[in-house]
Amino acid sequence: MAGLELLYSSVVSKITCPQDVVVCFVHWEIVRSGHKCIGTGDQPQESDTKSELLPSGWNDNKELFTLRYQSKNEKSYLILKAITVDSTLIFNLMDSATEHVSDLTVNVSDYVDADNLQAFDSVFKSTEELTKKVQADLLPPDSSSKGKSSKKTEKRPLRESDQQPDRNPLFTPPRHPQTGREPYWTDPMDPFAAGGADLDPFSGRSGGMIVDPLRSGLPRSIFDPSAGIPGRLPPGAVPPGARFDPFGPVGQNRPNPDPDHLPPPGYDDMFM
């Protein structure tokens, strides 16, 4: 990885623990993304200068590393913090311009050989995997896209709405598009459309306020009211084809409810 060896050689004398190695690596990934380090701490200082190197005192605090970065066009201002928790490092990167915050947790022993801290050739275990984690989870989206590898955008088939840009997505298609029949609803701008099914029952329009069980279009029983209801309605009492709503259950009489099902209030009061 070009440049990392030179950076590591410039700070190898100050590296005393595996956490220093990981912070150095993450620093180099941020520099590769188009930023330069301007100092340590949270607040700007008069001695801040843009550099690809790590500033003086960058690893004085082994429990909390704090570094500040700025992009070359000075539009992005990053604050990197790394907290040591047992054998892991928890990174937090905040872009003050966009208020974008990202986090990354690194198990130090998975990427650093603690027995070879002074040898660059053997100190890192898997730089490629660590690079992918830093670019995917820590760096801002606009910065991580400047790396070496760039993912090709997958082409997806155009939907019908994409092929017809003038098509109204709220348009309701007809119910019978294959047969060419017109939709059953009427023109809402027609002033005579309201109540048309009631004003003209033979127009074939659906809806309306008049309920006709014989012409509702729903499946109905084969009961013929003109034949009468045994024990209730004699035959011929209802003319054939007349509208008729049965006033009782058709067929056998339903059993009467048990008197104990719905007792009246105070039924056990002897004075009622």
TrEMBL record:
Pfam families: PI31_Prot_C, PI31_Prot_N. Residues 135-201, 225-272 are annotated as: Disordered. Plays an important role in control of proteasome function. Inhibits the hydrolysis of protein and peptide substrates by the 20S proteasome. Also inhibits the activation of the proteasome by the proteasome regulatory proteins PA700 and PA28. Gene3D superfamilies: 3.40.1000.30. Keywords: Acetylation, Cytoplasm, Endoplasmic reticulum, Methylation, Phosphoprotein, Proteasome. InterPro entries: PI31-like (IPR045128), PI31_Prot_C (IPR013886), PI31_Prot_N (IPR021625). Residues 151-165 have a biased composition (Basic and acidic residues). This is Proteasome inhibitor PI31 subunit. It is found in: Cytoplasm; Endoplasmic reticulum. One of its GO terms (molecular function) is endopeptidase inhibitor activity. Belongs to the proteasome inhibitor PI31 family. Signal peptide: none annotated. The keyword Cell inner membrane does not apply. Residues 13-138 form the PI31 proteasome regulator N-terminal domain. It comes from Aldrovandia affinis. The keyword Glycosyltransferase does not apply. GO terms for cellular component: endoplasmic reticulum; proteasome complex. Its main location: cytoplasm. Residues 166-249 form the PI31 proteasome regulator C-terminal domain. It comes from the Eukaryota. GO terms for biological process: proteasome-mediated ubiquitin-dependent protein catabolic process.
